[in-house]
Amino acid sequence: MRRRKVRSSRRLLGPMDRRRFVGLCAGSLALAAAGCRRAGDPAYARGNTLVMTVPDANVIKPDWYDLDKLLFPVLAALDDNGELEPRLAQSWERSADNREWTYHLRTDVRWSDGVPVTAHDVKFTLDLLSHPDVAEYSFESVTVLDDYTAKIRAASAYQDDITYFPKHLLERLEPKKYYDWDFWTHPTVSAGPYRFVRHLPETMMEFEANPDYYRGKRKIERVVLKFVGKAGLNELISGNADVVLYADATQIPFVAKDPRFRVYYAAGPVAQAIYWKCDHPLFRDVRVRRALTLAIDRRALLGVVNLPSELPITDGVFTQRQFRRRQFPEPVPYDPEQARALLEAAGWQDRDGDGVRERAGRPFSFTAIVGSVDMQGRDRLAVYVQAMLRRVGVHMNIQLLDTSEARLNTGDFEAVFRNANFNLRRLFGRNNPLGYRNAEVVRLTDQLLATADLEEADRIYQAVTEIFRADLPVTRLIPNISTHFVHRRVQGLSTPFHADPDTYMEDLWLEQQP
Amino acid sequence: MRGYILKRLLQAIPLLIGIATITFFIVHLAPGDPMDMYVERLQERRDVDPRVIEALRQKYGLDQPLPVQYLKWIGNLTRGDLGESFRYRRPVASLIAERIPYTLQLTVLALLLDALFGIALGIYSAVKRYSTSDKVITVGSLVLYSIPGFWLAVMLVLVFSVNLGWLPTSQTRSLDYETLSAAGKFLDRLWHLVLPVFVLGVAGAAGTARYMRNQLLEVLGKEYVVAARARGLPERSVILKHALRNALIPIVTIYGMALPFLLGGAVLIERIFAWPGMGSLAVDAIGARDYPIILATSMIAAVLVVLGNLMADITYSFVDPRVALDAGRQA
């Protein structure tokens, strides 16, 4: 029976069929070979062209990146010391209440179609961004004083970080469809350091240096943005890209050991932090919050998420300017012995020898919610913090939750691991969800609301920092970092303040290699 | 047949309304405001004026009570308006329309690879039962079925893209695509499809081959097959006309249920190959609590499951003459 089946199968797939099958396979291979005419796109990652992988195909709008600055002018830009330096605006004045800024524009800047860039473009852009259908910003008023002077009245302290668009090209378009405008994928008119060359949907955008750029033609001739989602590393090691913008930090060890590449880390005032529920019986005592902070070796945590140990560890709250000027105090030190002593003094002792302290029969055990969206290694930080706290006799449970922001806002938590962007009013003002009550902080946050003066804002933040270092309603862990993998031929970047290739593209150059 | 299809489609309407309602309320059960995530992402770059947040809430109707939001959403849905994404701030229909062609390229080819190779190898393996080639196919298909797709994808990228440089690492076409001839463009697309389609299709093909083999072996032992052989029919005719049609019935069910996969995409493969498909759109939306996209993709999946079932039932009647779709003629 079995022999018959085999024989019959020969009839089913007779010699002619087999030859056809082999022919078909050979044909398929030939087709594949014809397709394999080159390896990736290495030609683009050579010469004076920089190829940068971008996680998202929407590179201009919504403006998650600073890539719009390649094409469109800004009024002023922050330098490495956190000071504003002139760009499209050659000078400016601020009103007495610091809410009104009058900008005097350069008169020699033109859009790439030859039309001058004027105050009308500034007004058009700000009105557009304040339109209810766009709702990116909210300005009280924008007035054109003359063709090259614009007066902007803001509701609160603001620092201009806006790119300006050509009114003559966009004024007839509907704000309702703002994010769907073809202009964002085909920005044919620009006035920035680069100008648009072409766009391949879901694939790439290409720019070339603008020879008429008012700050002079940039050194890199062409910039290609490849939309590769999370596949940037493969593109880099295949030689198809020079820069992986906003890379995955878990890949740092792999890239860091390869001499062809460098890793740049951009830091800012935002940090990974633990928010304590300050009116909770466990955390009401400031000695306890201090002990928990002392028990965490924050410099060691940098290594947990593959970050270099020289990144700043600090406590308190800062503006961008203060952070860039390194105007922040030394952190509360890592001192587990002192942590133990403080816990003892607060009445927490391990009487039953189980490794967890108790007070009045209640063990020192709590649950920390760990925000699971955009974690950036937060889960690993939590595990290490858990182990560090265990060493001083505190038991922390970890609960991963993607609604941690909501739990934080409603006050329904004991401790939360989150990105700390330190919105002072929301988190530490009146009736704040942390249960942190400090009349001086409330007064300072009210004062912050009333000022648009950057110097005064800095002073307020400094005062709040002093209070926070004493009260520790929040324990900052490590700075929030943007990581970029960069081929060594790309020059002009530095960690931590000049590390974002999208922000500083116009300052970069390529080292020509043999 | 037409009456049957119409009846099934009408039956599907309350089912889909039920799915829409349950999905809407489950998605909104999560505490907090979905705008928080958008604003939080913005706040990492700049201070966001509270008035901007309020304007966004109003724009997307998030300031309305949940029942009002539901009625508005279901009303828009019946008009084909899927709403606007919170994350991309663009119409969901546009975002989905951009992704569907890429998803279909990938999934249709993967399904074809799965069906053609899976069924062919399954038949071959069954017909050559216990032969060396059967053993090779059996072991090979078990191995391929067991290998996780993401691991296989990464390994293939390392070997064929990074080390050998034969195939592209990612994306759907080359940077110089526009400069290619029509044939060049076609080949370029194929070139980019080789790895993702292989990875996506090979596990399915391996599974189908195993399933097909077992089904065919079971059918080959049936009396009507023995009778067909006894009547002196050629073996090719016995296998293809008598055994295969019956063995295919369960396979048809599997492919009927594959319809949601065609538009649903494959998240991990899309991620590894930077393929701009529906899978990553949906998963990213879940991470960003982008309700309009989550709801739209859930509804598309629901519609496809309903249609897939219907198509499988219709296909039965072609494959198996005993299956009559009209209730009065049920065999």
End-to-end distance of chain B: 15 Å
User: If interface size is counted as residues with C-beta under 8 Å from the partner's C-beta, which chains form the largest one?
Assistant: A-B, 73 and 73 residues
Q: What is the overall number of helices of chain B?
A: 14
How many beta strands in the DSSP annotation of chain B?
0
Mean pLDDT of chain A: 86
Number of helices of chain A: 15
Number of strands of chain A: 20
* Poorly predicted runs of chain A: 1-16, 33-40
Percent in strands of chain A? 15-25%
Q: What is the makeup of the main sheet of chain B?
A: none
Low-confidence stretches of chain B: none
Structural class of chain A: alpha+beta
Radius of gyration of chain A: 28 Å
Structure classification of chain B: mainly alpha
Q: Determine Rg of chain B (CA atoms, Å).
A: 25 Å
Q: Helix proportion of residues of chain B, in percent? A: over 70%
Give the termini distance of chain A in whole angstroms. Answer: 71 Å
Question: Which percent bin holds the helix content of chain A?
Answer: 25-40%
Topology:
The complex is a heterodimer of chains A (514) and B (331).
Chain A: H1 2-12, H2 15-35, E1 49-54, E2 76-78, E3 84-86, E4 89-94, E5 100-105, H3 119-130, E6 139-146, E7 149-154, H4 167-170, E8 194-200, E9 204-209, E10 222-227, H5 232-237, E11 243-244, H6 252-256, E12 261-276, H7 286-294, H8 298-304, H9 320-324, H10 336-345, E13 358-359, E14 362-363, E15 365-371, H11 378-391, E16 395-401, H12 404-410, E17 415-420, H13 424-428, H14 439-450, H15 454-471, E18 474-487, E19 490-491, E20 509-510
Parallel strand pairs in A: 1-10, 1-11, 15-16, 15-17
Antiparallel strand pairs in A: 2-3, 4-5, 5-7, 6-7, 8-9, 9-10, 11-18, 12-17, 12-18, 13-14, 19-20
Helix pairs in contact in A: 7-10, 14-15
Chain B: H1 2-29, H2 35-43, H3 50-59, H4 66-78, H5 92-127, H6 132-146, H7 149-163, H8 182-220, H9 223-230, H10 235-256, H11 259-264, H12 267-272, H13 278-287, H14 291-319
